Amino acid sequence: LKFAINDDQRALRDSVQAWLTKEYPHALWRDIACGPRAGAPAFWKEFAGMGWLGAALPERFGGLGGGTADAAVLAEAFGGALVLEPYVSTVVLGAGLIRAAGSAKQQSEWLPQVAEGRLRLAFAQAEAQSRFALHDVQARAQRSGDGWAISGEKVSVWDAPDADWLVVLARTAGDRMDRRGLGLFVVPRGAAGVTLRRFPMIDKRPGAHVRFDRARATAVLGDPEDALPAVQRVADQALAVLASEACGAMETAIAQTVAYLQQRKQFGQPLAQFQVLRHRVVDMRVQLECSRSLALHAALRADDPATAPRAAASAKVQAGRAGRWIGHQAVQLHGGMGMTDELAIGHVMKRLLMLDTFLGNADHHQQQLAALETATA
Amino acid sequence: MSLLDAYLSPQDRAFREEVRAFLRDHLPPRLARQQRSHSHLPRDDVVEWHQILHRRGWGAPSWPKEHGGTGWTPLQRFIFEDQCALADAPPLSMFGINMVGPVIYTFGSEAQKRRFLPAIVAMTEHWCQGYSEPGAGSDLAGLRTRAEVDGSEYVVNGSKIWTSDAHKADWMFCLVRTDPQAKQQKGISFLLIEMKSPGITVRPIISIDGGHTLNEVFFDNVRVPRANLVGEENQGWTYAKFLLGHERSATPEVSRTKRRMVLLREIAATMQSNGRPLAQDPHFALRLAGAQVELDALELTNLRLLLDEDYSGDGMAAASMMKLRGSEVMQLVTELTLDALGPGVMPYEDAGDGSTQTPGAPDCALGRVEDYFLRRAATIYAGSSETQRNILAKLVFGT
């Protein structure tokens, strides 16, 4: 038995990393993140052309037949280069929800468009009051003619400004905290009654608060009264992918820190000679390896409902804590240089904070795990 | 009741009331809001507040009376700082009041005292600090900017980095090398340089929070009158060490961290978690209580240094310890603030007024994410935590 990515995944990782090193250097990242093109996914067509968008999708829908582990391999490479393209939003969450809840017809119609880079998605789930609870939903979906009208507000929707469609979690029945009575609705971003308040997020990813004012849904994914189980399954897959993305960013943080300590001299010697700094970097490395093990485990277990929730939550706790700590240490060991917007390292720290926060921070998932403990005690 | 009440005399409490009343009546709410929402306060706001204090005779709280200060005891100064922080009063200019002023009135000539001190107390002139260089950070004695005598002037060449407020300053106090043959600490002099002198270029450094306080400063044959040398030539390191002691005693910012804790509690009371305020979440309450213990320990240590005459560490050890621990507790509270904001930390937009804000956040969250980013520097500036530990280790081991 092996506990590792397979040969195909290793080849995928190497080719993605090689491409990113060449085509997505930090200077270009800065141009994409802060320049006139800010927010637009600059390389989406290229990602599709290289087969990356379809890597984790079934072959019958134009994909390469991989699963969450393949998405995790891609995300780790993306995290290492601070990629801004909406991979998690479109492929892991958006396409994931279509696969988990959508009809066969919806899947065969839309998933190939995702793989070809012609359809970008964003998951409008969180609300101002919901913190990290997936089921804390006040946005309403009401029957309107033969369809549904959505009203309510979603906050900090990743990648919404550039998405074609929003997949909206909205309440069709019950009260705010009920686990039943939730549905998934497809609403085109440009539909009447949809208003976006756009902004950059801390890692320069585009985001938006989205207001729905009797916006017409063009489709429903699955049972409009019982979408939560599908959302939870897909969220667990996404947690594994986000933890992997964090591992890529941690690797970059450590590599840049090592290079800086070797090059920077104080008191007549390279900083890399100071034992206290060497030990710190070793602790960073150890935390990364532990994060990587749990992230891989979560990615490999993500499609098994019996083991996925615990594995996903554990991976997110570890990657969230380690990521934030490593980000802080990397900035600290860069000294004043670490505090500059100009250097990449501060942006790596921000990406790691973003990855800890999205879909539940370490505190949240530790509480989820504690709930599992007390339920079985 | 505050933690300190038991240790304050009736006179101290009366003084605290006097400060509180003054802040209540004279701190403009607009300035308090600016202080909370802007990590990089505009010069005009700092001046406005300083001049309000100056009119009350409180322009230089830490200075002796003869130089225009208040003559307050250390405890009174502490009470004043504490009340100002809790009220969100903008901080006084660190470089003028806390740094160059004490150097000038301790080591400067009578002419320098007359020329510079009144303008610092009245805040009609702003100062910045020219210490760090690209090759001399923690290893400050490695600095290379040189000043060569030419008649009645020095000619300065070189560069400084991480110079806070250089773009707003009228003057810089600057460490320069005047004896290139001398080793390290020897051969350094303390020079006052007017920022509008020909040959000075200031280049902004944008920090990771997105704001502008830091700069690089380049000197290209900048001519400085020899009368602007403070004390003796080649003795600058002595004055710098004196000043570093001042800097470390001013930077713990214990009271500012107390204010952050108050704001954090407001956030926890406002943010919802599972249908109730986050403050009622037992897990979060546990973390909040833990952070409060660390903050209380810091605050009471600070007070003990002021009130225990038998405290055995020397002044430098206390300054290093407070800088080290103060910056750690500050970061602990800013990190817990992020955890309290939860998903609210993600939006981060240039507000177009020199600050970066989080669209859609409640009022209690104003400026908190920017504060977290900028305060990553607290364990780096004014001698990094690693440098402070080296200083303290030398004292602990006697070698």
Mean pLDDT of chain B: 92
Alpha-carbon distance between the termini of chain A?
31 Å
> What Rg of chain A do the Cα atoms give?
21 Å
Query: Most extensive interface, residues per chain?
Result: A-B, 50 and 48 residues
What strand line-up does the widest sheet of chain A have?
Answer: 1-4-5-8
Number of helices of chain A: 11
Quickly describe the structure.
Chain A is built from 11 helices and 10 strands. Chain A is of the alpha+beta class.
Protein architecture, described:
The complex is a heterodimer of chains A (377) and B (399). With 377 residues, chain A is of the alpha+beta class. Helix content of chain A is 50%, strand content 16%. In chain A, the strands form three sheets. Chain A has a four-stranded mixed β-sheet, covered by helices on one side. In chain A, strands 2-3-7-6 form a four-stranded antiparallel β-sheet, with no helix packed on it. Chain A has a two-stranded antiparallel sheet with strand order 9-10. In chain B, helix 9 (282-307) packs antiparallel against helix 10, helix 10 (315-341) packs across helix 11 (368-374) and helix 10 (315-341) runs antiparallel to helix 12. Chain B has a four-stranded mixed β-sheet. A four-stranded antiparallel β-sheet of chain B has the order 2-3-7-6, with no helix packed on it. In chain B, strand 2 and strand 3 form a beta hairpin. Chain B has helices at 10-26, 29-37, 43-55, 74-86, 94-107, 110-121, 236-250, 254-270, 282-307, 315-341, 368-374, 385-397; strands spanning 127-130, 146-150, 153-161, 171-177, 188-194, 200-206, 212-225, 229-230, 272-273, 276-277, 349-350, 356-357. In chain B, 46% of the residues lie in helices and 16% in strands. Chain B contains twelve helices and twelve strands. With 399 residues, chain B is of the alpha+beta class. At the A-B interface, strand 6, strand 9, helix 9, helix 10 and helix 11 of A face strand 9, helix 9, helix 10 and helix 12 of B.
